[in-house]
Design a protein that fits this description.
The chain folds into 2 domains: 34 residues; 122 residues, 3-Layer(aba) Sandwich (Protein Transport Mog1p, Chain A), CATH 3.40.1000. The N terminus is likely disordered. The protein is an alpha+beta fold. 39% of the residues lie in helices and 28% in strands. The longest helix is centred in the C-terminal third of the chain and has 22 residues. Strands 1-2-3-7-6-5-4 form a 7-stranded antiparallel β-sheet. It is built from 6 helices and 7 strands; from the N terminus they run ααααβββαββββα. The chain is globular and about 35 Å long.
Length: 170
C-alpha cells in the first residue's frame, strides 16, 4: 500500500496542477504562451526507421531480419530496431544534443559523418545537427576473458560498418 501511495501521489498532484488551469482564459494569455519560445531549439532529422529500413537491415543482418521496434521516445528522437539470428541493430536518430553527451571514455572515430565517437556500448555519429546512435549486438557464445574482448572488438567493428552504411541517409 505504501508503494502505491508513493507512486500515485505525485501523479495525482501533477494531474491536479494541470487541471487547475483548465478554466476559462483570455485570448491574450494563450497568444503570449504560443509566441514565447520555450526551451532549447531542436532540429528534426530523419525517422530512424527511414534510415535503418528493411532493405538496409536485411543487407546488414541477413534475410531473416525483422523489425522489432519502431518508437518515438520523445519529440526529438526516434528509434528503430531490427533483429535476426545473426544479431540485432538498434539506432536512435534525432537532434545531436539529445543523442550525444561527451564522456572521457569516448574515442573519436575518423571518416564517419561530421564527427563520430565510439562510446561504451554504442557508436554515435553527427551529420550537421542530426545525430545517430548505433548499437549492434552480434550473436555469440561465451562472454568472458579473451572471448569478451574479441566480442567487444567485433561489436565495435560492426557498429562502424552499420554507421558507414546508414550515415548517408541522415
Amino acid at each position: 500500500m505504501i508503494l502505491r501511495q508513493t507512486v500515485l501521489l505525485p501523479v495525482v498532484a501533477v494531474a491536479a496542477f494541470a487541471l487547475a488551469d483548465c478554466g476559462p482564459s483570455s485570448e491574450s494569455k494563450h497568444t503570449a504562451i504560443a509566441a514565447a519560445p520555450v526551451g532549447p531549439q531542436f532540429v528534426s532529422g530523419s525517422n530512424a526507421c527511414d534510415v535503418l529500413d528493411d532493405a538496409a537491415a536485411k543487407q546488414l543482418l541477413g534475410d531473416a531480419a525483422k523489425l522489432t521496434r519502431k518508437a518515438q521516445p520523445n519529440p526529438h528522437m526516434s528509434q528503430c530496431q531490427y533483429t535476426s539470428p545473426n544479431g540485432a541493430i538498434t539506432i536512435m536518430v534525432g537532434d545531436w544534443k539529445m543523442i550525444y553527451t561527451a564522456s572521457p571514455q569516448d574515442k573519436p572515430v575518423a571518416g564517419l559523418g561530421d564527427e563520430a565517437y565510439d562510446t561504451p556500448g554504442e557508436l554515435v555519429v553527427r551529420k550537421g545537427e542530426v545525430g545517430m546512435s548505433v548499437n549492434v549486438i552480434v550473436s555469440s557464445g561465451e562472454f568472458w576473458g579473451k572471448a569478451a574482448d574479441d566480442m567487444l572488438a567485433q561489436q565495435s567493428a560492426a557498429q562502424k560498418k552499420v554507421a558507414a552504411a546508414l550515415v548517408p541517409k541522415l
